[in-house]
Amino acid sequence: MELIWSGLVEAFKMIVQLDNEVLQITLLTLQVCLISTFISTLIGLPAGMVLAFKNFAGKQLILLIVHAGMGLPPVVAGLWVTMFLWRSGPLGDLQWLFTPQAIVAAQVVVSLPIIISLTYSAFKKIDYALILQIKSLGPTTAQKVYMYIKEARFGIMAAIMAGLGRVLAEVGAAMMVGGNLRGETRILTTAMVMEVSRGNFHIALALSFILMAIALIITFILLHLQQRRFTP
Amino acid sequence: MNQKWTSLLVSGVILLLASGCGDTSEGQETGTEIDGEMILATTTSTYDTGLLDELMPVFEEETGVNVKIIAAGSGQALAMGEAGEADALLAHAPEAEEVLEADGKVINRHRVMHNDFIVAGPESDSAGIYGLPVEEAFSELARQNGVFFSRGDDSGTHKKELDIWNLAGTEPDFENYQETGQGMGETLRIASERAGYTLTDRGTYLFQKENIGNLAILNEGDESLENVYHVMQVNPDLSDKINDKAAQAFVDFFLSDETQSFIKTFGEEEWGQPLFFTN
Q: What's the CA gap between B84 and B234, in Å, rounded?
């Protein structure tokens, strides 16, 4: 109990003082997680839409893989990304292993299936009568896409939140492909693992509060975006 | 209101994207000669004690090389070297290192420092192994089915532990012999929480002392408990991406008088004794 209490006090002090290293780790975490979620959304949203509205050969197989991919353990993704990025691996020439780019790549791999399958469900939930109605207006493709996204926006936001939650919480892949390098690829989760292994529980605790605060703030912003009235 | 939120989010994302991931290797221009990046695969004990945190900035300053420290067990560190995935290694598994050296996978291998392993266990010492020669202590633990936590991760410490079981002529297959599969710090804390025995390097033990209050040093000083660290370069023929100049400079740096005298005193202030000894 004493440890928890002194940990809380230490954590509070660290957050108030906000030393440069903690700040840098926090900013890197934000950068990496937002960029990877952004990329996943950029790919996942159109992919989810195509899967929901178009029929083509192999669609069921893709759906199966994407849905199964939602449960892909980050360490598995990390292992595969690591092997691709090895100097001797197929993408070795990029020299990405142990860089933030590698973390982004691994996080895209773990968050993409989540975003694809949840946006797919969101589009699938649009009322069929409404789809017919939209089509009867004779819209251009761009207008159609816009209206579908507008109709499915709650589900899409939920998909993005789920994807972001996954990458913020993820540690196994970031550790493996990033290497937890001080000042370069150390993010909040990997820093926590390291501090625990060094026995610095109070620092780990402080980092956990920062991580939870970030998750809370971002979710708040996204929720706000989700709940707002759509004014075309 | 809505517009504000959107623009806030969008500008936030743009800012983050703009400041980007590309800021990793700037500020290295001051280097005198070598530059570039180098991957150092090392055992956890050199990293977790903070030794490399102190030494690496000096090396980076001197050479302009950006060192990426991958702290893993010696097993993984050596495997990375063998595959050409690292440029230099700092490890404490001499026998496995000698095999790599004989195969030509690593070159320019030098002894840089040493400390020793100790057997840590509960102060109550229910198995009564205090002060025994380490081989006898191990046999005694096996005979009494004492609670023993092994690293079980192919690290240098794990290899040493297996050596000692071998010397003791005992198989570690008793019921209370458990493998943690984790680093030394975690393993010590598990041993502490579960009142078990474990083999540890002295540096990590001292470093973790305040977290493992009930673990005492029970056996120490035997010749078989010596813990020797070597630094070495990965053979540049293994991959065209190896920065052999940096690796060579790294080996030289570790052997330099300044570094050696720094290591000699490292930790004295905080723990009342140095964590590593030089030769």
A: 7
More confident residue, A124 or B13: A124
pLDDT per residue over B168-224, tens digit each?
999 999 999 999 988 888 899 999 989 999 999 998 898 888 888 889 999 999 999
Report the chain A residue with the minimal C-alpha distance to residue B72: A179
Give the number of other Cβ atoms within 10 Å of residue A195's Cβ: 18
CA-nearest residue to A229 within chain B is B2
Q: What is the mean pLDDT of residues A124-153?
A: 92
Angstrom distance (rounded) from CA B222 to CA B30: 47
Which CATH architecture group holds B116-226? 3-Layer(aba) Sandwich (3.40)
Question: Does B5 sit within 8 Å of A228, measured CB to CB?
Answer: yes
Cα dist. B262→B55, B230, B256, B259 in Å? 9, 17, 10, 5
Cβ distance B21 to A229 less than 8 Å, yes or no, reads no
d(CA A32, CA A193) in angstroms, rounded, equals 18
Round to whole Å and give the CA distance between A102 and A109: 11
**A199 vs B70, B71, B211: nearest CB:** B211
Any CB–CB contact under 8 A between B5 and chain A? Answer: yes
Domain span(s) for CATH 3.40.190.10 in chain B: 28-114+228-271, 116-226
pLDDT digit string (tens) for A197-210? Answer: 877 888 888 899 88
Q: Hey, is the C-beta of A53 within 8 angstroms of any chain B C-beta?
A: no
Architecture of the domain delimited by A2-227: Orthogonal Bundle (1.10)
User: Over 90: is that where the pLDDT of A156 sits?
Assistant: yes
Which parts of chain B fold into alpha helices (H)?
Answer: 2-19, 44-48, 51-63, 74-82, 94-102, 134-144, 156-168, 184-193, 202-208, 244-255, 257-265, 268-271
Please determine, for residue A159, whether its predicted confidence score (pLDDT) is greater than 70: yes
Q: Choose among A104, A221, A231: nearest Cβ to B9.
A: A221
Q: pTM (2 decimals)?
A: 0.82
B28-114+228-271 CATH pick, 3.30.230.40, 3.40.50.2030, 3.40.50.300, 3.40.190.10: 3.40.190.10
CB distance B16–A35 less than 8 Å? Answer: yes
**Would you call A182 and B185 a contact, using CB atoms and an 8 Å cutoff?**
no
Does residue B83 sit at the A interface (CB-CB below 8 Å)? yes
- Chain A touched by B84 (CB under 8 Å): yes
CB of B245 less than 8 A from some CB of A: no
Distance between A224 CA and the closest CA of chain B, angstroms: 8
**Is residue B31 over pLDDT 50?**
no
Q: Which sequence spans correspond to the domains of chain A?
A: 2-227
